[in-house]
Amino acid sequence: MFDANIKPNLAFIVGAPRSGTTLLMSILLCHPEIHGLFEYKFMLIFKKKYEKKDFRLKKYRFALSKDFIDYLEHKRLITAQGIFDRIVQMDKKVIDVFIQSNNIEDYSQAIMFLYRSISILGIKTIKPKVILEKNPVYTQHLDKLFEICPTAKCIGIIRNHRDAVSSRVSSGTGSSQNIQYFAKYWELVNKRFYQFTVKYKNNVLPIFYKDLLQSPEETIQKCLNFLSVGTDYDYTVYKSYYKDLMTSLKDDPVLMNNERAKKKFGDLSRPINSTAVNKWRERINVSQKGIIDAICQNASNLFFKDKMFIEKTSPKLINGLAYYKAILNFYIDEHRYQLPPKVNFFLEKLVRTIGVV
After folding, report:
1. What are the tens digits of pLDDT across the range 115-170?
2. Is 68 a member of any domain?
3. Is residue 1 part of a domain?
4. Which domain holds residue 187?
5. Structural element, H or E, at residue 34
């Protein structure tokens, strides 16, 4: 039974791409006091339109709920055919309760109410203490999120630059241009995240991918304490859930024909692979490692105790088109949420089709 009087806290999981955000979210998603959802940009896309509205007025609750439903339809259309409907379920009764509720005052309360209408992979939390959204895109936008909800909390996961970049390369092409793009983007995102760890030190918990893999129980306990939820939690329960999910979906042609979804759920159904640390040694050669180190050195030194001292790499190797494309995309993303929602819908479609922005 949905309880409209519950007012949970808001929290986020962020990190550069391929840093372990999906693994961490999948573990925490199964916690009985956490209501989780994956990668919606709705909160930022509609921030400018609604952040100063008084949601005690029904007309704004109605307008926001309509935009929320439209956004979910947009996500469904840009997601691989059939996948969205298999993963995301929406309870329209919660939307109706939201529209009629008269105890919602501001944008953050409205967002948390609407987010509770969504369940991921059938996991429902009746009385959540925390609404937790995992979204790597948010890594460079924590200031905007804290403007919406100053009491929000954020867990940021940092992965060694060589492992993070080589992981992205291994899923595509290892060309010099792609390596420069992935490395520069890693550097920009993690520099920005470090600034946020200093500015919002009481609201942000940095953790390391290596610790999540090699000391998972200790790392998860740290996250649960930070989120102020119960720590009597067997973090390994997520494996059983995804194993059962894979079994139940084995005859589903939509999911089983989607290699990305099948691999993701399959990986999550197996024990944590601690050997994924330093996997870069198998993925990149010495020259590629030199390019990655040269680009990421300064940002890496902000987080890791073992400072990097590397030989100077030829400027020609780190000034390719992809290097500047990463900078351009980063700064487009920095300002895109000042644009109207329809423009952001278009940009999301553009990402899906040609892989830029």
Report:
1. 999 988 777 777 899 999 999 999 999 999 999 999 999 999 999 999 999 988 87
2. yes
3. no
4. 9-354
5. strand 34-38
Q: How far apart are CA 322 and CA 175, in angstroms?
A: 10
Domain of 22, CATH number, reads 3.40.50.300
The per-residue pLDDT for range 171-225, each reduced to its tens digit, is 665 555 688 999 999 999 999 999 999 999 999 999 999 999 999 999 999 999 9
Number of domains in the chain: 1
Q: Is residue 103 part of a domain?
A: yes
Write out the two tokens for 246: 């894979």
pTM, entire model: 0.90
Q: Cα 193 vs. chain centroid, distance in angstroms?
A: 13
CA 30 to chain centre: 16
Number of C-alpha atoms within 13 angstroms, CB side, residue 271? 6
pLDDT value at position 254?
A: 67
Is the pLDDT confidence value at 93 over 70? yes
Neighbours of 192 (CB within 10 A): 18
Asked whether residue 3 is assigned to any structural domain, the reply reads no
For 43, 55, 98, the CA distances from 5, given in Å and listed in that order, are 21, 16, 11
Q: Quickly list H helices, the chain.
A: 21-29, 42-45, 47-50, 58-78, 83-87, 92-100, 107-115, 142-148, 161-170, 176-199, 209-214, 216-227, 237-248, 253-256, 259-268, 280-283, 286-303, 321-335, 341-354
